[in-house]
Design a protein that fits this description.
TIM Barrel; binds iron/sulfur cluster
Length: 240
Amino acid sequence: MEGHIHSFESFGTVDGPGIRFVVFMQGCPMRCKYCHNPDTWPFAGGKTYTAAEVAKNALRYKNYFTGGGGITVSGGEPMAQADFVQELFTLVRAAGVTTALDTSGIMFNPSDVHRFDGLLDVTDLVLLDIKHIDDASHRQLTGHSNANVLAFAKYLSDMGKDMWIRHVLVPGITDDDDCLTRLAEFISGLNSVKKVEVLPYHTMGEVKYKNLGIDYPLRGVQPPSAERVANAKRILGVIR
Ligand code: SF4
């Protein structure tokens, strides 16, 4: 099975526990205004690799996967190439390596909930981005409803799948106390959340928009202050 891949990172430390080999898939249906990887959006781009080629590449670093490390597949949106990721995870797990899926959950369909069961069977940890708890604001921020995302979180909770919830904190967009409180309430209703991460918005992706000739939607928005990050962590009851 072949997958369209944007890039690899051999020693990732921010996408799951420990030191990880990170695969960034090509293609994403979302258009998050704060996305720092707009070059991963087109499904047509990237390079093509077989799952066996990627597994072989990742397993060269196996001895470095300390601290609970392993392989993370990120994006782009990895669930858009679920069959490829399932084959890749099956291969690396057979070699004793743990797997993490870094996803927006947007591909989940509440009327076809078993579509990704095969992939989830070989996924040890889901890193689920909840971009906004308020549906109208989620649509403004990403171009999509959050209904699939929240349904996916509940589905993972019901099956007892370990997950980390991640929330990018953008001043004036995702950081108001009311929405953070609603998000905290939603998370508190989930059974299998092992960690909540607040990811402060940064502007490092802005140059990529310029290079791609795309208007940067958050021009002028500054990263959150340390106080606002601490406030979000307090409201979300960040689990370390
Ligand atoms: S889901 Fe991720 S890759 Fe896709 S637009 Fe949003 S931030 Fe970018």
